[in-house]
Amino acid sequence: MTMPPGIATVTLSGRYIRPDGAPLKGTVSFATPALLTLSGADTISAGSSTVTLDESGMFSVILVATDNALMQPTGWAYQVTERFQDVTGRTYAIQLPGTTPTVNIADIAPADPSQGQYIIVPGPAGPAGATILTGLGLPSNAAGANGDLYIDLTPGDVTLYGPKTGGAWPVDGTYLGSDNLISSVNGAVGVVILDAADVGADPAGSAASAQSAAIADAASKYLSKVSGGTITGPVTVNRATASDVLIGGLVGTEAFDRFRLYVDGTLEFGSGIAARDTKLYRSAAGVLRTDTALQATTSFRLNTSSLGGGVGVVALANATTVPASTPTGGGVLYVEAGALKFRGSAGTVTTIAPA
Question: Distance between alpha carbon 241 and the CA centroid of its chain, in Å?
Answer without folding.
Answer: 50
